[in-house]
Amino acid sequence: MLSRLRCGAFAAAVWLLAWSAAAEPTRLDEGWQLLIDPAATLQVGSLPADGWRPVKVGQPWNAQFDDLRDYMGVAWYRVPFTVPASRTPQKVLLRFGAVDHRAEVFVNGEPAGSHEGAYTPFVLDVTARVKSGANELVVRVTDPPPTPQGKTPRFPELPYEELPRGKQTWYIQNGGIW
Fold this sequence. Notes:
Blueprint: E1 2-4, E2 13-19, E3 26-27, E4 33-37, E5 53-54, H1 61-64, E6 73-83, E7 91-96, E8 99-100, E9 102-107, E10 110-116, E11 122-125, E12 133-143, E13 176-177
Antiparallel strand pairs: 1-2, 2-7, 4-5, 4-6, 6-12, 7-11, 8-13, 9-10, 9-12
């Protein structure tokens, strides 16, 4: 899966790359859904059926939904995709342009890899997780909030104060697949 991140003059796209002699990348930038997990307690195997909303990858959730303008924490993305039996790939790569800040990726309910770094692309080989027919890609995104003075970070493994940030103070919050 290949996601091209673009900000400002750029645009985003998500791709599934099937590596074979005549591979054609498949765009997966349509049909995504978002589920907010404020308690950060949901698990990939027991995600609820309701509460999901349509979302565009390539734009932060903060820019798409008024109620999420300042949201920081955990959210889940999912998108179904189909691999025709006649085109069963020899190798499937998943590539993202950027996910702010940590991405945990699952294909058909199985862990496929993770990445930390809001501004860097990453590629995962998901060949062993993809099957002919219907598949589902799920991404758990963690965008940690600032730690209140004298408190323990909400996500101790991702302290907000240690994450790379722009020097500008006028940037709005950006979370998600963007």
